[in-house]
Amino acid sequence: MSEEEDDIILADLSDDELVLQMHDDLYDGMKEEIEESVHILLGRGWMPYDVLTKALVEGMRIVGIDFRDGILFVPEVLLAANAMKGGMFILKPLLAETGAPRLGNMVIGTVKGDIHDIGKNLVTMMMEGAGFEVKDLGINNPVENYLDELEEGDYDILGMSALLTTTMPYMKVVIDTMVEKGMRDDYVVLVGGAPLNEEFGKAIGADAYCRDAAVAVETAKEYMAKKHNQMSA
Amino acid sequence: MALPVDDKTLTEKGIDAPDVTLGRVLLLACGALAHEILALKRLNKWDHMDLQCLPAKYHLYPDKIPNAVEEAVLKHQNDYETIFVVYADCGTGGLLQAKCAELGVEMVEGPHCYSFFEGNEVFAKTSEDEITAFYLTDFLVKQFDAFIMKPMGLDRHPELRDMYFGNYTKVVYQAQINDPALDVKAQTCADKLGLPLERRFTGYGDLESTLKSVS
Asked: Is A169 buried (19+), middle (13-18) or exposed (0-12) by CB count in 10 A?
């Protein structure tokens, strides 16, 4: 960062300038600056939902594009996500109080035998940012964890993640069990993880393979729109 | 036979097959296995085997492995009676196996080198109880910074460590040889990840028996 940028006083920026600065700060993974800016916008009377979507989600969308295009790499995305997490921590209780559009409900978890959760955590955060309520089951989930949670709540989407080629076949175990129990068609099943691809997603009977968090959000939105249209038809 | 190149070269570039074909078998291997293969060649007097290594850094981009293997096999298939691919699945999700089948060449069984060093059968039994173990081999201990610290950005952003390794409970160092200096380095690696170290001497595991079976 240049010396000139070091001198920026966030509180002196106009709303538009501050939002653009937040996009830059997210890109650079500057958590403290993001937290300060969120407080400034809230102090100026912004609705929490607007802070979330116009500043944080839009900033992460830019990060996602540059990750997809090979300009940013995993460490930079993690730093950006960490900064967004700082902002989300402030906004989450306020969003619940002020009300924000709810697009749908999702259960997500890393499959049995796998403890990798970086991608899953990014998807969770981006889905929440996009207006989904997400129940995160964490790591190393046997089929019962997914099914019990789906049966207990009012969910639209199941998300499964795996990083290992040795654990990704377990996704099929979950989907096959859903078919056996006659509940497969009640949910949209999205899968993701570094070793997966579209072909694998189709082969195991998932609705879609999502190559990154941004695609997961867009795919989930599309399915929810379809569901909404079917219900109103 | 001394290794003609250093670990950095094995990581970045690999080593080419000899200009003049010396043996009738070409071992087409991951650069991370060069030391072990050459040690086994020396011990067993496998003079009929030549070695070519692809860059070990393909560990970080497994999708590059099948095409790189194909390119090397096509280049050398007329120079050797047999080409044997010294990779396990190595994160390719079955794509390397499919490519080898298409090319008509054999490869090492198992999911990855941690498995065949430990012995595929033993690893299959124990790994389910060890999903929170982070494995290192001799090569990865020596090249820890190149394979872990730098690509994960931990050299620049140590605060990311727990995002990557928060779910791990131990580092398992699978030692192929007994070298006190490597033990010390393995401990340093574990310290960098904030995890306890378990050293396990595996020797060459299934690698030796597999290569023995290659005619």
From this structure: middle
Best mutation target among A32, A74, A125 (most B Cβ atoms within 10 Å) is A74
Mean pLDDT of A38-67: 95
Are the Cβ atoms of A117 and B128 closer than 8 angstroms?
A: no
| Interface pTM, i.e. ipTM | 0.85
Are B111 and A165 within 8 A, CB to CB? Answer: yes
Chain B contact present for A114, CB below 8 A: yes
Do the Cβ atoms of B170 and B197 come closer than 8 Å?
Answer: yes
Coil, strand or helix at A110: strand
pLDDT of A26 reads 96
Does residue A136 belong to the interface with chain B, where contact is any CB pair within 8 Å?
A: no
CA distance B167 to chain A (A): 6
Nearest to A75 among B89, B111, B152 (CB): B152
| Contact predicate A155/A100, CB 8 Å | no
pTM of the model: 0.87
Q: Are the CB atoms for A164 and A181 separated by under 8 Å?
A: no
CA dist., res. A84 & res. A71, Å (int): 19
The model's confidence at residue A76, banded by pLDDT at 50, 70 and 90, is very high
Strands B25-30 and B49-54: parallel
- Residue A185 CA to residue A191 CA, distance in Å, equals 16
Which residues in chain B are closer than 8 Å to A117, comparing Cβ atoms? Answer: 167
Q: How far apart, in whole angstroms, are the C-alpha atoms of residue A170 and residue A160?
A: 10
Question: B163 falls in which pLDDT band (50, 70, 90)?
Answer: very high
Residue holding tokens 């996602």? A64
Q: Which of residues 152-171 of A touch B (CB under 8 A)?
A: 164-166, 168
Q: Which of A126, A152, A121 has its CA nearest to residue A136?
A: A121
Contact assessment for residue B152 and residue B193, using Cβ atoms and an 8 Å cutoff? no
Any B CB within 8 A of A75 CB: yes
Residue type, A172: K
